[in-house]
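Shall we go through a protein fold together, starting from nothing but its sequence? Label the sequence line and the structure token line clearly, so we can match residues to local backbone shapes. Would you write everything just below, so we can both look at the same thing?
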Amino acid sequence: MVRDMTLTDVAVVTELARELGYATTEEELRARFELLSKDPAAGLYVAERAGVVIGFIQVGIRVPLEAKIHAEILALSATGKEQRTGAGRALCARAAAFAKHHGLTTLRVRSNIARDGSHAFYTHLGFEKTKTQHVYALPI
């Protein structure tokens, strides 16, 4: 089952984010959740099995000046033991429904080049590779 994320899910979502390799604290994630949960251009959802959160997804609306408005999956994770059980597929379906609800016709996702399993997963769902890029960060 996929449902809207709530503040009570933040602890589990923090652990799932850590499984992806993101060093975040529950307090940091809680603050971001409280900001995003008020944003109509953001969708935050969790997957549950037997009442236990097993995955999460964040989807947002992107409004680039030079390209078509689209939805983008910004984060997706399922616990290791729940991978390949349909949780990720259900979460992606919810992200697609979010996009459709907002009148959008494209759902995009970016995936780290090192995550071969993710590439196969997205391709299996019907996503098509449209470009490869580098990401740079400037500490400020």
